[in-house]
Write a structure and sequence with these properties.
Layout (H helix, E strand, L loop, with lengths): L4 H20 L8 H11 L2 E4 L6 E5 L13 E7 L10 H7 L1 E6 L5 E4 L7 E9 L5 E3 L3 E4 L8 E5 L3 E3 L5 E6 L11 E5 L7 E6 L5 E6 L9 E6 L17 E7 L5 E4 L6 E2 L5 E8 L7 E2 L10 E8 L2 E7 L8 E8 L2 E7 L4 E2 L15 E3 L6 E5 L3 E3 L5 E6 L11 E5 L6 E8 L4 E7 L8 E6 L17 E7 L26
Parallel strand pairs: 10-16, 18-26, 28-34
Antiparallel strand pairs: 1-2, 2-5, 3-4, 3-6, 6-7, 6-8, 9-11, 11-14, 12-15, 13-14, 15-16, 17-19, 19-23, 20-25, 21-24, 22-23, 24-26, 27-29, 29-32, 30-33, 31-32, 33-34
């Protein structure tokens, strides 16, 4: 072959352009396929992330073309399991013999290849195309998928716990995608009267969870259901047998709600003027602390007064804010007369499982007494006396506040009325005794003692009722008179025995 200066200069120029393109990696003519391939080879190292048993995420750097913006370049990923003969293959070989792993939009420099075989080596190459349909091929890189692992049972859901009702589904969560499970992989035991039965198993889309559905069983409070799964009886989607120990969760049925207890009333005797408070305490159930429900209201909803005698009635209010776990009942404005008890209705509190509280026991007996006291008697009764009484006893129908001496009014015709001393209360505050001393009363003079019950109050602040009672004592100092009546005519018969002498 004859070498001319013209041909030699042309060769030198081509080599210079190629050398410049390889050095810079970003000034390659889009009309030169070889140059584009060289640029991709020099600038586009392939890396791999998120390598799993069945997928690999492939990443690469952008290629550069002098005549076309980088954003106009299109990347196609190809892969194969067969080892190539060199570090590159032609676009035609890629398209014909390799598997197309996806096409990305400009500026998208990553894609994930799925459905791969675990523990297998794959070879990857990038085919880049510019706007002028020129193509370039990257160097071939290889990466193996992860080795298929033995699946393990991560957990059973729900976890062991108190429940109400029993769970309808049990979810088994595995570390790997699994072959479909069946009901025979699960076993049930426990103290329930009748155990639920297994219905079906549904697998998640990714195969990592198996959901067992259960029918209703018959379980009472505190009875248990145990669900067990042996991971060695199942296999992964890759055909690897499971490992680990049997996992079991126990569910204890808890149907008893919070227990409401009514405390001792602050007062057990009320009138329209008095108030009393009663504290309600809710004991936590087995599943946790109670929460009040809307059945218990500030205006007394959820609280029942049960009359036992008479027709008592009170206004009820509930303090729900001060101590929510121990609401305080206030009874006020009680009318009528009689006795009643207080209880808290069912459903006024709930526990974390939704169990409602039952009706509480009754409180201590509470008496409503709006009956006015009456003055039953004054003693001594009206009579003749000598001397005047030294004490007056007023007997009432109910316990009274201590009577002031001024409630006893003295009048009469005595020259000097007795002096009032003190009033002492006795007989459960139902008897008031006034002491009297001195005074000057002569025969026929009088002393009157009067008590007005409407000026008095009983110990419950009920005002007295009835008329004033007055007792009058007349002084009698003259003793009875003694006298001889006229003799009656009497005939005496006698015999004189001395007459004959």
């Amino acid at each position: 072959m004859k070498v001319t200066w013209k041909w030699f200069l042309s060769l030198i120029g081509s080599l210079f352009i190629l050398f410049a393109g390889l050095r810079c990696g970003s000034h390659i003519s889009s009309t030169d396929t070889a140059a584009l391939t060289a640029a991709l080879t020099a600038a586009s190292s392939i890396t791999f992330t998120e390598v799993t048993t069945t997928s690999i995420t492939v990443n690469w750097r952008a290629a550069v073309d002098t005549s076309n913006p980088s954003k106009s370049l299109t990347y196609l990923l190809y892969y194969t399991q067969k080892k190539p003969g060199g570090i590159k293959v032609s676009p035609a070989i890629l398209r014909k013999n390799w598997i197309h792993g996806g096409i990305t939009k400009p500026d998208t420099l990553s894609t994930t290849v799925s459905a791969l075989t675990p523990n297998t080596l794959y070879y990857f190459s990038i085919l880049v195309t510019d706007a002028s349909k020129n193509t370039g091929v990257s160097t071939i890189f290889s990466q193996a998928t992860a080795e298929a692992l033995s699946p393990t049972l991560s957990s059973l859901v729900p976890a062991t716990n108190l429940v109400n009702p029993l769970p309808k589904t049990i979810v088994a969560i595995f570390s790997e995608a699994m072959s479909p499970l069946s009901v025979s992989n699960f076993s049930l035991s426990g103290t329930c009267a009748t155990l639920p039965t297994t219905q079906a198993v549904a697998m998640s889309t990714d195969g990592t969870t198996a959901t067992l559905s259960l029918s209703d069983g018959t379980c009472l409070d505190t009875q248990t259901l145990m669900v067990s799964l042996d991971p060695t009886t199942v296999t992964s989607a890759a055909g690897v047998a499971g490992t680990g120990t049997v996992s079991s969760n126990t569910y204890t049925l808890a149907t008893t709600g919070p227990l409401a207890t009514v405390g001792t009333p602050s007062s057990t005797v009320l009138t329209v003027l008095h108030t009393a408070t009663v504290t309600v305490k809710y004991a936590a159930s087995a599943s946790g602390n109670p929460v009040l429900t809307s059945a218990l209201t500030a205006s007394g909803g959820g609280i029942t007064l049960t009359p036992l005698t008479g027709t008592p009635s009170c206004t009820v209010a509930v303090d729900l804010l001060t101590t929510p776990s121990s609401p305080i009942i206030t009874l006020s404005g009680c009318s009528g007369t009689g006795t009643f008890t207080v209880h808290v209705d069912a459903g006024t509190a709930t526990d974390p499982l939704g169990n409602l509280s039952a009706t509480s026991a009754e409180s201590a007996l509470i008496t409503v007494d709006n009956t006015a006291p009456t003055l039953d008697s004054l003693f001594p009764a009206t009579s003749y006396v000598n001397p005047t009484p030294t004490s007056i006893l007023a007997t009432f129908s109910k316990a009274m506040h201590a009577l002031p001496v001024d409630n006893f009014v003295l009048t009469g015709t005595c020259s000097s009325l007795p002096t009032k001393g003190t009033v002492t209360m006795g007989g459960g505050n139902m008897i008031a005794t006034l002491s009297l001393s001195g005074g000057s009363c002569t025969n026929g003079q009088t002393l009157s003692v009067a008590v007005n019950p409407t000026a008095l109050k009983d110990t419950l602040e009920n005002s007295g009722t009835g008329s004033t009672i007055t007792r009058t004592y007349t002084v009698d100092t003259v003793g009875p008179s003694a006298f001889l009546g006229a003799p009656s005519l009497t005939t005496f018969h006698h015999r004189c025995y001395l007459c004959a002498i």
